[in-house]
Amino acid sequence: MNVLVVLSIILFVLMAIVGGKKGVKSFIALFLNFGVLIITILVMNDPNANPIWLTLVACAFISAISLFYINDVNSKTTMAFFSTIITLLILFFFIIIITEKSMIQGFGAEESEELMTFSLFIGIDFIKVAASVIIMSTIGAIVDTAISITSPMREIHHHNPMITRKDLFLAGIRIGRDILGTSTNTLFFAFFGGYMGLLIWFKDLSYSFSEIINAKVFSDEMITIFTAGMGVALVIPIASWMTSYYLVTIGNKKK
Amino acid sequence: MKTWIQKQTKKQLFIYFLIVASFIGSIIFVNYNHAFYDQPIAKVTGATETDRTETVDQHQNQDITVTQQITATVKNGSYKGETIDITNEYSGSHAYDHAFQPGDEVFVTIDDSTFTGTIENVKRDKYLILVAWLFIIVLLAVGKKQGLLSVISLAVNAVILSFALDIYLQNSDISLLIICGISIVLFTVISLLMVNGMNEKTYTAIIATLLGTLSSLLIAYLALFVTGEQGLRYEEMSFLSRNPQTVFMAGLLIGSLGAVMDVAITMSSSIFELYEKNNQINLKTLKASGIDIGKDIMGTMTNILFFAYVSGSIPMLLLYFKNASPLGFTLSMNLSIELARALAGGIGIVLTIPIAIYTSIFFIQRKRART
């Protein structure tokens, strides 16, 4: 049997045992997200489609699946959703400039052997694709951080309805700071794990320090790590501000 | 009302000053470090388009190829100050080529007889440093002390990893997995102590992380063994200079470590918090709350790994599709390794939830027995 099938079955069974109904939902969400990703890539094949807008739409779907499908629609998931989207917009603005300037798009010289059989004149703008890849790598972590902030903030407001907007905002920032370390760690190690082969390759072929830091593949991966870290940090004030504004200012008006 | 500066202590002001000074210093350095490179660097001073052709490849993909004539000034070496001519070709898709504008800096090889150059690579160090600084500044601005700690922990972990790989490459008789195992213990202890300080929560999280990683490794091994690794396309792993299977397993171990640590510390912190609020709380309630917290985090945590791994394959997938490769073939060629990593990492995340609950309960019981 196929390894992937076996691993999927093991993951499904474990999620169902540990998480019950919610575990099953989380597993289905993973598959739906995979579907969204594949469809996005297929649509990106159309040379007239703009990969950046496509990625934003895809990220909206992915966040919606991770937040609304697993947790239902409520104030904490809605706030997490909008803070994710706003963070992505800010990040995109920055990433597009950086990918264009640093020319990290497409494939590096290290991959030339693999590319020999392919036609590279395929009419898709790889600069935009590179920006999309960086955003896509980060979306999971940004959604996770957003919900980890909005959810306890709602609890605080619930137990403390008279709390001022500023205090609630600061509480959100404090929660965010506590999870910042672990969230960034999750991403760092995920990327380190993925780049193991590349790191060994650099060392085996005794690349010099200057060759490594100017290599396209290395710059690409470092910029991805740094941008991902920035995304996780940026979503903290955004989610705290939005949730405190929504719960206190709008919540009080409703009353 | 006090101004912002008056509110800061001397020590804080000193730290801000230090950060700003090293920021400015390093940015200036990478923009004027040409003398430190052996390879000639040239700065583009002019670029004119000389030809633009529409192309259609064998799969009916439309693209354009553009030829540009570049004049550039050499910034270092024996030709310093000379002007060279470069012919550069690029395509509309930029998959393996670059369009240059005045101001860009490139590594070149120079033909001394004709004073023409060939572009070898782009000088990317200045952008790398800039992004690294932005990362540090954003993390410090948002996270203050915790932000600083996560920057330090990234740096320390990167150094350990690089050091561990050096040891592996110098002593190839030691298995990469053993070296990774030792590094994982170091990563876990250092990262968790830095993020959370020395206390029982951290010890619990360290033990849970190590047990979680070990059990997910065993399950992954077992699955690979039972299936005879059918469906894993090692041949499509990029940048291979070693046995792909070892590189894959080592990457899998280290890749899921961060997520497993995250789960372990979240679980142990919340369970210990419940215990501290109410020392008499019974174990069943603790277990039930633990499971509830676990349910909340497992979906988003598995998602983090999934997207961090799979997104990197997008450019290659597009290339395959545009070269008329069939869907199933393309997906299995390019995604099997990443998917296997994401699934194994997911298994680690889910397994760590009960492991962390029982480890926390074990420590709590020991604490109770002592008092």
UniProtKB/TrEMBL annotation, chain A:
InterPro entries in UniProt: UCP031503_TM, YibE_F
Pfam families in alphabetical order: YibE_F
Keyword Transferase (UniProt): no
Protein name as it appears in the record: YibE/F-like protein
PANTHER family: MEMBRANE PROTEIN, MEMBRANE PROTEIN-RELATED
Protein source organism: Gracilibacillus orientalis
Entry annotated with the keyword Translocase: no
TM segment ranges: 26-45, 52-71, 77-98, 179-202, 222-248
Keywords noted in UniProt: Membrane, Transmembrane, Transmembrane helix
Automatic annotation (TrEMBL), chain B:
Entry keywords, A to Z: Membrane, Transmembrane, Transmembrane helix
Top-level division of the source organism's lineage: Bacteria
Protein name in the entry: Uncharacterized membrane protein
Organism: Gracilibacillus orientalis
A Pfam entry, by short name: YibE_F
Annotated transmembrane regions: 12-32, 127-143, 148-168, 174-195, 202-226, 246-265, 304-322, 342-364
